[in-house]
Amino acid sequence: MAMLLREALGDSLRRVRTQQGRTLREVSTGARVSLGYLSEVERGQKEASSELLAAICDALDVEIADLLLEVGSAMRPAGAEPVVVGAGPLGDTADAETGLSATKVVIPAPPARRDTTALAAA
Asked: What topology is assigned to 5-75 in CATH?
């Protein structure tokens, strides 16, 4: 069975906390969440809301984007590569107003679901 998002998030949060040499109590106090709830999040038993995840990341002094990139990499099956196709209406140029590039990332469906004609015929 594939790893659940809450399990991958919990593993990454625990790894960051232990690498920093911090206790659950220290981080739970900083994030203003109960020690028991933080423990359940780290063990993958509770699904953290985006607000709670942001508070925990603040308490750990890590960027939520960095944590999510790590989690995404951990959840990717071995040997699977992300597929980047096409570009948005801005192509490879940056938006003058935001400075951001528009790139579309397509995540492929599992092999069993790629044949949509078979599903439509069923």
From this structure: 434 Repressor (Amino-terminal Domain) (1.10.260)
**Global pTM?**
0.65
The H or E element containing residue 44 is none
The residue ranges of every structural domain in the chain are 5-75, 83-121
**Measured CA distances, 53 to 60, 85, 92, 109 (Å):** 10, 30, 32, 27
* Rounded Cα gap, residues 52 and 56, in angstroms: 6
Percentage, residues of the chain above pLDDT 90: 53
Contact assessment for residue 25 and residue 63, using Cβ atoms and an 8 Å cutoff = no
* Helices and strands of the chain, counted as H and E runs: 6, 2
The pLDDT value given to residue 111: 60
- pLDDT for the residue 50: 94
